[in-house]
Design a protein that fits this description.
The complex is a heterodimer of chains A (about 300) and B (about 375).
Chain A (H helix, E strand, L loop, with lengths): L2 H30 L7 H19 L2 H25 L4 H20 L25 H5 L4 H19 L1 H11 L1 H6 L4 H27 L12 H11 L4 H23 L7 H19 L2 H6 L16
Helix pairs in contact in A: 1-6, 1-9, 1-10, 1-11, 2-3, 2-4, 2-9, 2-10, 3-4, 3-9, 6-7, 10-11, 10-12, 11-12
Chain B lengths: L1 H20 L4 E4 L18 E6 L9 H16 L3 E6 L7 H11 L4 E4 L5 H10 L4 E5 L8 E6 L1 H15 L4 E6 L4 H17 L4 E6 L6 H13 L4 E5 L4 H8 L3 E2 L18 E3 L2 H12 L7 E4 L6 E3 L8 H15 L10 E2 L5 E3 L7 H5 L8 E2 L5
Parallel strand pairs in B: 2-3, 2-4, 4-5, 5-6, 6-12, 7-8, 7-9, 8-16, 9-10
Antiparallel strand pairs in B: 1-3, 11-13, 14-15
Helix pairs in contact in B: 2-9, 3-4, 5-6, 5-10, 7-8
The chains are: A mainly alpha (about 300), B alpha/beta (about 375).
Chain lengths: ~300, ~375
Amino acid sequence: MNSNAWIISIGASLAAATPIVLAALGAILHERAGVLNLGVEGMMLIGAVAAFLAADAWGNVWLALLCGILAGGSLAIIHSLLAVTFRANQIVAGLALTIFGTGVAKYLGEPVNGVAISTSINEIKMPFVGNLPAVGRVLFQQDVLTYATWAAVILVSLYINRTRLGLALRAVGESPATADAQGISVARVRHVHVLLGGLFAGAGGAYQALARAPGWNQEATTNGIGWIALSLVVFATWRPGRALFGAFIFGFAIRSQFTFQAQGITIIPSLVLDILPYALTIIVLIVMSFGTARQRLGAPAALGMPFVRDER
Amino acid sequence: MKKSFRIGAAILGLALVAAACGDDKTTETTMAPGDTSVMTDAPAGDPLKVAFVYVGPIGDAGWTKKHDDGRLALEAEFGEAIEVKYIESVPEGPDSQQVLEELVAEGTDLIFATSFGYMDQMVAVSEANPDVCFQHATGYMTTDNLGTYFGAAEEARYLSGIAAGHSSASGKIGYVAAFPIPEVLRGINAFTLGAQSINPDATVQVVWTSTWFGPDIEKQAAESLLDAGVDVVAQHQDTAAAGEAALAAGAKWLGYNDDMSRFAPEAWLTGPVWDWAPYYIKTTQEVIDGTCSNAQYYGTMADGMVGLASYGDSVDQATRDHIEAVKATIIDGSFKPFTGPINDQDGNEKVAAGESPDLGTLLGMDYLVEGVIGSAKG
């Protein structure tokens, strides 16, 4: 067995985790505010198609990334309107958003079906540390967006736990009535964080189309990553650091099914490895479904519940 | 009062969303007036209804796109004499039955379904609807009104194996493959024999992805092969993602289905390509004339259903000449890619020296040849 190949695969798993982490960070933000958004997959796809269209038109990868981020955000505004302003059922609204986002993305992507990408986000090798054995390959030869994502994990974590705004966010998610009594605008906090969630999901989709599998391949571009991110939030008990760790485990589970085969290890059938990430998700969801566990693991108490001041 | 208004508005919003995204998979196409002279005996105003059922989106740049090119050629050929529609991204298995039944209910006369996994449903629906003609790509079951069509991709696979054998300095070649079914195993084996005709020690390492169309997955599979030290990657997949991985690693790449060179020109060698148009035109003409073929049609390089894509810049003239020479012997029938002695991975003789298996044996191929690393069971 080739240990070098495993080191490379661990490094690759970190890059594969990037879009999952981005989408999960966004989901943590709006779920911490008490809004469930099952539209993550739709927002990612919109982000992916917008990024690809922009890359195709202008050939600038950073402009493309920006377009992807904004496109994800604009779809989130629809959810924000439905879930926060109109207090619609958040599950239904979110599912509708995914279906809607997928349809719109496919429509917009029609002209670039089968078009080769002109520019993409490439890995950079950091000077000095990039040459370290093993660690250098894993940690210091990633693309810019992966580094930015790691930074975002730290920033979001600090924001939620160490700032006044973060405290307001948690208050809104745990007990909107109390937050309201303290003079915090529940609706405003929720609107802002649903939008932030959309921006992050858009970035995740853009990364997928610009770096992971450069190109526009309809639904297969994101291939269900949005759903993995949503379950990862539960797995990570709404904490950014754990989401990063969890995304890495998911990324490695996806990757290792091929590394096992490429290294000629056929003891575990590839189909078993194939279902590993999803089996993991199901187990976590089952554990989470017990009420007491849900509380202990830190689910925002008001998650999925619209806040209606006059009916309090 | 205020609350019920808001709920009402939300429901209205959702209804609009649902309406906007409904029915996005079905697209009906009507061609501009074309040459209708071939249809002199058909009653005007009653065009033959033809439908295509695709496993992927037409923009997949691969398998489905080539079938759709065939559809466009068919429409150009018959013009207003036929009415053609297609349905994209139809899942294999039980879900496809509903799609087929809907097409029959709409009065479709001829249905082409283009993936192996529709087979049981094609059999069931064709038996229930004897007046409709069914044509199933890659399947092996027929009924009175269900024919199959496919082609000897192994001929072009063998030729692309020659290109890989010339290109690979290490003799270690990778192969990203979807599912361990006979069609795919046959391709891997022919490819390996082609590579070994240049370098007898060449190995072909297979990684299974369990998907026909999944760019991220295909790319990761290719990357893991490149990590393991291969310097050429071939594929039985419907996107060009493996090419992007090969390009990034400075390796070479062979595509499939269509000329994919534009996705990674520096990495591109060549690859097998399909041309379905002649079969679609021939079969449609037969249905217009009142017959429905229920044969198992197997196209070849000789009849043009199978071909080889353009060569990449790194394929030198000597290699091209060699490939073209072998291609000529395949087309004139003097050479068959599967000619013994052929052993399986365990060294058991599968084809005796000088012999070549008949079509039925080829279509049921369930082993990998010597020199392939990987499991024939996925």
